[in-house]
Automatic annotation (TrEMBL):
Protein name: Probable membrane transporter protein
Superkingdom of this protein's organism: Bacteria
Gene Ontology cellular component terms for the protein in this record: plasma membrane
Subcellular location as annotated: Cell membrane
Membrane topology: Multi-pass membrane protein
Residue ranges crossing the lipid bilayer per the database entry: 24-46, 52-69, 81-101, 121-141, 148-166, 178-195
Alphabetized UniProt keyword annotations: Cell membrane, Membrane, Transmembrane, Transmembrane helix, Transport
Similarity field: Belongs to the 4-toluene sulfonate uptake permease (TSUP) (TC 2.A.102) family.
């Protein structure tokens, strides 16, 4: 829930800043399928222990990072309903399970968008729509305590600082650099979660 709340603040700031760059035609179909599968993911999530969830997330991130680094450059995903339904469904499922619905959409938007700012505006708008659904599902299954409120406030503060710095950097780097950063973050996060799941 903390992750989803923090992401919503990040998404709102980016949407306001880059609203004219949003590619709405690349958002609608993935978002619809994500709404359906995210509910399934949340249902599955409540039945797993924290250790199991960390282990599964670590494996998932490593598999996706390897795909993006080794295979994605050789595979051109198409802009069609079938592809968007598949990536939206996988994004919703992983979002419901791990609160990490980004990697499948990174793979798709990375393949069909070449401009860093258009990429960021489109993917964050998609995340905003799906985060609202995830938050509703989380509130149904999780009690929002005072402890969660404190962590959320700290997380949002860090997110706003990170967004400001990230926006300044985004205007000065290429899409290729954005891709490399995304892959490195996935590998680091995957390794961290694998360790958490094993220890």
């Amino acid at each position: 829930m903390i992750s989803v709340l923090t992401c919503i603040f990040l998404q709102i700031t980016i949407i306001i800043r880059y609203f004219k760059k949003i590619k709405w035609n690349l958002i609608i179909i993935p978002a619809i399928f994500s709404f359906i599968t995210s509910t399934i993911g949340v249902h599955l999530m409540v039945d797993f222990s924290a250790k199991t969830m960390s282990l599964l997330l670590g494996i998932f991130l490593w598999i996706l990072a390897i795909y993006l680094i080794k295979f994605a450059p050789k595979i051109q995903l198409s802009k069609n309903i079938f592809t968007e339904a598949c990536v939206g469904s996988l994004s919703g499922l992983s979002g419901g399970l791990f609160a990490v619905g980004g990697p499948p959409m990174v793979a798709y938007y990375d393949s069909v968008i070449d401009d860093p700012i258009t990429y960021q505006a489109t993917i964050q708008t998609y995340f905003f729509l799906t985060s609202i659904i995830l938050l509703v599902n989380d509130l149904i299954y999780t009690q929002f305590t005072n402890r969660l409120s404190l962590f959320s406030i700290c997380a949002v503060g860090g997110c706003l600082i990170g967004t400001y710095v990230g926006n300044r950097i985004l205007q000065k780097i290429s899409m290729q650099t954005v891709r490399k950063i995304a892959y490195i973050v996935m590998l680091i996060a995957g390794t961290y979660n694998l360790i958490q799941g094993i220890i």
